[in-house]
Amino acid sequence: MARVDEKQVAVSRVYSRAMLDRAESDGQAQNLLEELEGLARLMRENPSFRDFISSPLIEEQERERSLEKLFRGRGSDLLVDSLQVLNQHGRLAILETIAETYRLAFQEKHGIVDVHVTSAIPLNDALRQGLAEAAANMTGKKPKIIAEVDASLLGGLVVRVGDRKIDTSVVAGLRKMRHTLEDRSAREIHASRSADLG
């Protein structure tokens, strides 16, 4: 697991909160969140773009012109203006961290909580809805379900709400959903074996 750079996170929070305040006043907070997440994803997937954003070898003025050509008219003015401010202060290299701290600040402001669910097979709509309702009742916030499949769980269900791992054996509603998931896994395994034998 990568070590968290606390100083980088602290600096990112300063910029992301300023961006969120401006975006909220302009009614663009959700849109800016989507744009920042898209840029962070692009940095992860495209090494050339990451180099362009973060390389100290590119002069500020050159990058300023490139940012204008790449994004002005394609992204929101708020996004482009924010990128230019980050460029002027030499902070574009931490854009991914800024995108994440912006997301967390946005969710805090709007009463949204991440619910990470790891299951042996993909969640069906009923399970997803049940988890969302249970998390909403537990936290009083709007849940954002982030699902991941891990076949090694052998039909189990691991749920983390925010930073807290939930013991599904304690929460009756979640326990019932876990059993439903286990039954579904068993049926799928049985069906798969029958198909292999046939």
Structure report:
By secondary structure, the protein is of the alpha+beta class. 64% of the residues lie in helices and 12% in strands. It has eight helices and four strands. A four-stranded mixed beta sheet has the order 2-1-3-4. The longest helix is centred in the C-terminal third of the chain and has 26 residues. The protein folds into two domains: 103 residues, N-terminal domain of the delta subunit of the F1F0-ATP synthase (Peroxidase, domain 1, Orthogonal Bundle), CATH 1.10.520; 86 residues, Glutaredoxin (3-Layer(aba) Sandwich), CATH 3.40.30. Helix 4 runs antiparallel to helix 5.
List the helices and strands and how they pair.
Elements lengths: L5 H21 L2 H17 L1 H8 L5 H12 L5 H12 L6 H15 L2 E8 L5 H15 L2 E8 L7 E5 L2 E3 L5 H26 L1
Parallel strand pairs: 1-2
Antiparallel strand pairs: 1-3, 3-4
Short description:
The chain is of the alpha+beta class and 198 residues long. The chain has eight helices and four strands, in the order H-H-H-H-H-H-E-H-E-E-E-H.
Features of the shown structure:
single chain, 198 residues, alpha+beta, Peroxidase, domain 1, Glutaredoxin, 2 domains, 4-stranded mixed sheet, 12% strand, elongated
The CATH superfamily of the largest domain is: N-terminal domain of the delta subunit of the F1F0-ATP synthase
Indicate the mean pLDDT: 85
| Low-pLDDT windows of residues | none
Any idea what the radius of gyration is?
Answer: 21 Å
Q: How many domain modules?
A: 2
Q: Could you say which structural class the secondary elements and strand pairing correspond to? A: alpha+beta
Spatially, the strands of the biggest sheet line up as: 2-1-3-4
For the secondary structure, the number of strands is 4
